[in-house]
Amino acid sequence: MINRPIRSIPSLLLTLLLGLGAAEKEALSLESLAAATAVPMKNVDGSEISIASAKGAKGTLVLFSCNHCPFVVAWEERIAAIGNEALEKGVGVIQINPNDPSQAGDTFEGMQQRAKERGFKFPYTVDETSQIARAFGATRTPEVFLFDAQGKLVYHGAIDDNHQDPAKVQHHYLKDAVAALIEGKAPPTSKSKAVGCGIKFHKEK
């Protein structure tokens, strides 16, 4: 008879909780995130808007981003182009800055300037307590969540596979996912690794 080591109860519980956390993230939907999506956030134009009010007829794109992260800066022109086109074609788009504004460049005024420079046609808002990012399970900037018209998560991850050089991109994850969504099709890729800077979360009170 082979004696196998018995895993401790705490170890088993940790494994179970981690597994549940991964499953919950995969099962994200706008319905399951209803409380977070209803929270009004300050937009760069001074108005208040929530994810729920930014929803589009063909789907909703939620981007967690910021100003100072080098990955965001490298991808930003692509983010603006994809987001603006998606908005024009019926996909609701909202970009959210969850970082503590004490980070260099992540002030509200800095956000306003960046939105103007990049020509964002979509809202760029402040997650004042990082509660929205926490609800989504977001950990990086940039990190994107694309939902279909029914609110089901159909793509989560990075913009594409090369932040440094647009000419060397082989997989246009977000662009292709948005195009598929507009055509009523499933995105060719549903998940990729979010690559970027760690979110500088506000301290929980």
What does this structure look like?
The chain has a single domain (29-198), classed as Glutaredoxin. The protein contains seven helices and nine strands. Strand 3, helix 4 (70-88) and strand 4 (91-97) form a beta-alpha-beta unit. By secondary structure, the protein is an alpha+beta fold.
The assigned structural class equals: alpha+beta
How many distinct folded domains? Answer: 1
- β-strand percent reads 15-25%
CATH topology (level 3) name: Glutaredoxin
Q: State the share of residues found in helices, binned by percent.
A: 25-40%
CATH fourth-tier homologous superfamily: Glutaredoxin
* CATH class descriptor name: Alpha Beta
Euclidean distance between termini CA atoms: 54 Å
Unreliable stretches (pLDDT < 50, length at least 5) are: 4-24
Mean pLDDT: 89
- In one word, what is the shape? globular
What's the number of extended β-strand segments?
Answer: 9
Task: Write a concise keyword list for the protein shown above.
18% strand; two-stranded antiparallel sheet; Glutaredoxin; 205 residues; 9 strands; single chain; seven-stranded mixed β-sheet; alpha+beta; globular; 35% helix; 7 helices
